[in-house]
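NADPH-dependent FMN reductase-like domain-containing protein
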Amino acid sequence: MAERERLRLVIIIGSIRKGRFGHVAAEWPASRARLRPDFGVDVIDLATAWLPDVMYADPSAPRPQAVKDLAPSLRAADAFVVVTHISAVFL
């Protein structure tokens, strides 16, 4: 059997708030995937990615450098895991 290319998993930590827990929660799937020789893992932390608050729908508008920097990793991904918090209110 021919050797297969490694699958690329991108884990995105979606919370940017102070006191967040996302980096801890993201470490579990990242560590599990790293145990597999057929997976490569990238973790993207939106708190440090410095993405703009607003993106324009016009495809000819210039892209901010932070978006350009993330594009290759996102483009190469075979799978995504997004880690974010959900706030539940019970009445």
